[in-house]
């Protein structure tokens, strides 16, 4: 196998667009691609394991990492903080593995500033009406909560122009094939493959 410093893929979407389904399938199906493991100040939920689902740390340690520039990006969501560790990410990328970050738009834009060549992917719902129907079909949220999610979804949709690729999740299989193709196309880009081509050329 050809080993090279890994690629960074970022995926964002409004709640209900199907991002988690697509991202989980991608990591299970594509070799040498792993999920990023975020640091968080929230407590573990039942079944969650430190170092597998998240790195669970306290507020003081999070503050120290912020001061020391230890995060590529970090955000506060619903009273808890989440961040991508710079040392962890660099260590994984150095092995040649690709990393997929499932983060919301604010974190994604912060990461883009830190890693300009990260590939940014936004999952689009087919329409606002379809998104609202998906949220209602879950049966988990009140009308008020759905209204809040829809307003937040509009805010996220307004940032679509900051992403490199837009994948509409209307047909799940088609959306997955498009999502997967972005990873393989990035791996074969001229910028990534130039060192390999140069080594082959030197053999002539």
Word description of this protein:
It comes from Geothrix oryzae. Essential for recycling GMP and indirectly, cGMP. ATP binds at residues 13-20. One of its GO terms (molecular function) is kinase activity. Keywords: ATP-binding, Cytoplasm, Kinase, Nucleotide-binding, Transferase. This protein is of the alpha/beta class. It has a domain at 8-36 and 97-201: P-loop containing nucleotide triphosphate hydrolases (Rossmann fold), CATH 3.40.50. 46% of the residues lie in helices and 20% in strands. The strands form 2 sheets. The protein has a 5-stranded parallel β-sheet, with helices on both faces. Strands 4-3-6-5 form a 4-stranded mixed β-sheet. The longest helix has 16 residues, at 172-187. It is globular.
Topology at a glance:
Elements: E1 8-12, H1 19-29, E2 33-35, E3 39-40, E4 55-56, H2 59-67, E5 71-77, E6 80-85, H3 86-94, E7 98-102, H4 105-114, E8 119-124, H5 128-138, H6 143-157, E9 165-168, H7 172-187, H8 190-201
Parallel strand pairs: 1-7, 1-8, 2-7, 3-4, 8-9
Antiparallel strand pairs: 3-6, 5-6
Proportion of strand residues: 15-25%
CATH superfamily grouping of the domain at 8-36 and 97-201: P-loop containing nucleotide triphosphate hydrolases
The description of the largest β-sheet is: 5 strands, parallel
User: Which CATH C-level class of the domain at 8-36 and 97-201 is it?
Assistant: Alpha Beta
Biggest sheet: strand arrangement: 2-7-1-8-9
Helix content: 40-55%
Mean pLDDT: 93
């Amino acid at each position: 196998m050809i080993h090279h410093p890994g690629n960074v893929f970022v995926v964002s979407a409004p709640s209900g667009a199907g991002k988690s389904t697509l991202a989980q399938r991608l990591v299970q199906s594509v070799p040498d691609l792993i999920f990023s493991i975020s640091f968080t100040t929230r407590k573990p939920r039942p079944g969650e394991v430190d170092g597998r689902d998240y790195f669970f740390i306290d507020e003081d340690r999070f503050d120290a990492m912020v001061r020391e520039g230890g995060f590529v990006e970090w955000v506060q969501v619903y009273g808890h903080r989440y961040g991508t560790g710079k040392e962890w990410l660099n260590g994984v990328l150095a092995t040649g593995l690709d990393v997929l970050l499932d983060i919301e738009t604010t974190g994604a834009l912060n990461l883009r500033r830190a890693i300009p060549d990260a590939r940014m992917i936004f999952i689009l719902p087919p329409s606002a009406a379809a998104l609202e129907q998906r949220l209602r079909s879950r049966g988990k949220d009140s009308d008020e909560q759905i209204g809040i999610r829809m307003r937040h979804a509009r805010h996220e949709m307004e940032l679509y122009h900051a992403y490199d690729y837009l994948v509409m999740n209307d047909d799940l299989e088609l959306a997955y094939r498009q999502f997967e193709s972005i990873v393989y196309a990035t791996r074969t880009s001229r910028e990534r493959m130039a060192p390999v081509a140069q080594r082959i050329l030197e053999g002539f």
